[in-house]
Amino acid sequence: MVTTVREAQALTARATDIVERLHRAAQSLDANEEAEERAWLEAAGRRVELALTRTLEGIEQGLELPELAPLRVARADALVGRWIDALQELDAALVTHVGENHPLFEVLFPHRNFDKLRRPSANLDAYRADFERRRASTYVRRLATDPEYPFLDSLFEGADGAQAAIQALRDRPAPTEEREEALRADILAHAARLAVALRQARSLADAVLATRPDLASELGFDLKPRRTRSRSAPPESGAG
What we know:
Elements (H helix, E strand, L loop, with lengths): L4 H24 L6 H27 L7 H30 L4 H6 L5 H4 L6 H12 L2 H7 L7 H19 L6 H33 L6 H4 L21
Helix pairs in contact: 1-2, 1-9, 2-9, 3-8
């Protein structure tokens, strides 16, 4: 039973791996001789994938939850990385369109050492704020309306979009206590259905393994039956 958001996260990681394994295993079966078994694995994969998608969507909606702070940090780091990539692409595109000595470079970039921006010590917030100010300068806005530069707005799309995504993540309001509880409940409800889908997938995989035991490791399920304690066995002692 999934009782916490972090357990739900761990379950989605497990389910992601299982979906990939089910797909590979299904593809390894003969479409004619093992069509039924293949269909079982494909059905299992679809059920898990649907429940996984809904659980991940719930986690995305609950990104502002306190227990998802590490995920928010990772998401922010990834968005900043995409923004730096977009700046490099903008730089390269401008070189192609206007030449490396065009005044745009001096106006837009405090420096063009993008590897420096990727270092942990880089003051990215200051650089981002400075770039946005330069991006909104009168010179850049005027150039964007110049008939000789019809390409300029489209070149900025990648950097503008990456910047907007960073800001949207940072601007998400802290949820109220009631909102937090609702977000957790939604995530856990989806995770519970994902757990059921995984158990169903296990059952379908067991049916396939009756004829293809060689697929056990490929499917990635724990296929060894769990030991059950005999009803007549005495209870474990708490003290030695």
